[in-house]
Specification:
This protein is mainly alpha-helical. It contains two helices and four strands, in the order βααβββ. The strands form two sheets. A two-stranded antiparallel ribbon has the order 1-2. The longest helix is centred in the N-terminal third of the chain and has 34 residues, at about 45-80.
């Protein structure tokens, strides 16, 4: 499977800046060409017509560039079609490997760690509030006392991870694999657990009911979709 080339910010600066300049020049050209005509000034009619046409062309070009950029960006985000530029698509990059990385006390709020391999990582006391960890592997990772408020951990692999006393308030763990995960003394207020899987080796805070929060118990002998 091939991935669409991602437009980098530096790639957008030149065409977008050019488009803005063209819009301004085009609007001025159209105004210079149209206003005298409506006012009945025909002394420089040919000049006004030429200016109007040049302005219209510049305006049209700028609009086309804006529409093209917007369409290309939308298609790339949706993953629905190749880049309009005709450039060959890049192959799927390898998953970022951060196995066993030491990020204790790291300050990573709002970090994008989607699909990152973080198995056995050391993330104790790390600030990962609002971080995107969708479909990432955190199997065996240490996240004790980590700040994961409002983090997106949907469909993440958290098997055997240690999240004791972690702050998971308003976090999204929908579909996550929590088998063997330690959530003892973790803060789970308003946590989303719909479809998350756990088993008898998963430890929860006292008096917390995973079933009432939408989690699903994976019993022995039941096949796993992981």
């Amino acid at each position: 499977m091939r991935r669409l080339r991602t437009i980098q910010p530096q790639e957008l600066r030149i065409p977008t800046g050019l488009s803005i300049a063209m819009l301004i020049v085009g609007a001025i050209g159209v105004a210079i060409g149209v206003v005298p005509t409506f006012m009945g000034d025909e002394a420089d009619g040919r000049r006004d017509v030429a200016t109007f046409l040049a302005g219209a062309v510049a305006l049209g070009f700028a609009v086309v560039v804006f529409v093209r950029l917007g369409l290309e960006t939308a298609l790339q985000r949706a993953g629905a079609a190749p880049a309009l530029s005709g450039a060959p698509s890049d192959p799927d990059p390898e998953v970022l490997q951060l196995v066993g990385v030491d990020l204790r006390e790291a300050f990573l709020p709002e970090a994008d760690l989607t699909r990152v391999e973080l198995s056995d990582a050391l993330l104790d006391d790390a600030d990962l509030s609002l971080a995107a960890l969708r479909r990432s592997s955190l199997a065996g990772a240490k996240l004790r006392r980590a700040d994961l408020r409002s983090a997106d951990l949907s469909w993440a692999d958290l098997r055997g991870a240690d999240l004791q006393r972690a702050d998971l308030r308003r976090a999204n763990l929908a579909g996550a694999d929590l088998r063997g995960t330690s959530l003892r003394d973790a803060s789970l207020d308003q946590v989303k657990l719909r479809g998350a899987r756990y088993d008898e080796t998963t430890s929860w805070p006292a008096e917390f009911s995973p079933l009432e929060s939408g989690a699903v118990e994976a019993r022995k002998g039941r096949p796993s979709s992981t």
